[in-house]
Write a structure and sequence with these properties.
- A hairpin with a 5-residue loop joins β6 and β7.
- α1 crosses α13, α2 crosses α13 and α12 crosses α15.
- This protein is 56% helix and 18% strand.
- The protein is of the alpha+beta class.
- The protein has a 6-stranded mixed β-barrel with strand order 2-3-8-5-7-6.
- It contains 15 helices and 10 strands.
- It has 2 domains: 199 residues, no CATH class; 205 residues, no CATH class.
Length: 412
Amino acid sequence: MPITFAIALRFLFRSAKTRQIGVFTVVSVLGIAASVFVFLLIDTIINGLTSHLQASLIGFEAPLFVPTDTEGVRPTDQALARFSKEHSEFNLTYYCNKQFDGLIQRPAQSAMGVKVKTAGQEFFDIKQEQVSVYWFDGFSQQGFVGSDNQVLLGESLYESLQFIPGDDEVVSITHPFADIGPTGEMEPSQRDFVLAGIFSTGRLAFDESFALVSPSGLAQLSDDDFLEKEYYIFPRQWESLAQIQTLWQQGRGAQLGVMKTWFDRNSNLFKAMKLEQLMYFVIFIFVFLISCFNMAALISIFGTSKSKETAILSALGLRLKQARLIFIQIGFVLGALGTLVGVGSALLLTVIAQKSGFRLPEAYGFTELPLAINVITLTGLLLGTPLFTALIACVPAYRLIHRDITQVMREN
C-alpha cells in the first residue's frame, strides 16, 4: 500500500505539470470543492435556522401546550399538578399564559397593533436564558411583577414607537373587546402603562409584535373571559415530549384539553425545511457526479500518459491489483483534496460570519444569520466524498490496467 500510494502521488504531481492534465486536475479538485462547499454551507444555514427557531420559538412560547378557557383554568391547573406529582421524573414546570391582540400608541400618535402577553414571576424564572431584558433606571423585575401599570416592549416595537429622549415613556394599550356594554355590544378598554424596559428574543416576529405586562396589569385591562388562555408546560428534557403527551392523553387530563407539542404546531415549517434540504442535496449530488466524471476522464488521461511506466512496473513484478490501486488512489487523493478545500472554505466562512456579527435585513425575521455546523454532515462529507471518488476511479483504472504489456511497449 505505501509503495503504490507513493507511485500514485508521483504520477499525479509529475503529470499535473503538463498543461492539459494540469487544467483537468484543477477543474476536478475545484468541482469537488465547490459542491462540498455549497452543500455544507447550505446545510449549516438550515441547521442553524432550525436550532434558532427552536430556541427562539420555544424560548418565547413552550414545548407543550394545553388550551383552556376561564372555567377550565382551575381544573386544568389541578390536573397538571396531579400529573406532575404522578410523573415526577419529568420535573414539569408550568403556568397559565394569557394574552390578547390589542392596540398600542404614544400620546398624539396613531395606534398600531400589538400582542399583549402576561409575564409573571414564573415567566422570568423559566425564560431567563431565552429572553434578554434591559431594565430602565429605577425599574426591576421584582417591581414589574408586583406592579399593575408597567410594560416591557419588544426591542423592534420600542424602535417603531420612536421615543425621543426627554419624552415621557408612557404608552396607552387598548383591548378592543374587553367588556360587554349595557346594550350587548363589545366595549374597548384602555389604560396607560409606564415603560419599564425592553426585551429581545432574537426573532423580529416577536420583538416587533409583543408587549409584556404583569398578571395584575392584564387584569386591569380585561376580564379573563376576553383573553386567550393556555397552559405552557416545560419538562426537564425535550426528548420526553412525546411520552408526556401520550401519558396526558391516556389519563384524565385529556377530558380538559388536548396537549400539543411545539413541534405539532410547527410541523409544516419543518417539513418545508426538510424538503429544502433534500432539494439542495439532490443539486449537490448532480454537481458532485459531474465533477467525478471529469475526474474519471482525468484518470484516463493519466493512465494513457503513464502506460509506458505502468507496463515497465508490471514487467518488474508489480501485480495487477497493485497497478490498479495506483489509479484508484489518485482518485482518492483528488477527492480528499477537493473535500478539504470545500470543507475548509465553508468552515472559514462560517467562523467569519459568526465573528463579524453580520446582521440580516429585517425582512428575514432574524437579527443575525443563524449558523450551526451539523457534525454528522461534516463527518459524512469528510469520509464519504474521498471514498466515493476512489470508487468512481475504479472504472477507468480497471480498463487501463487490462492491456497487453507488449502492445503498450510497442506503442511507446
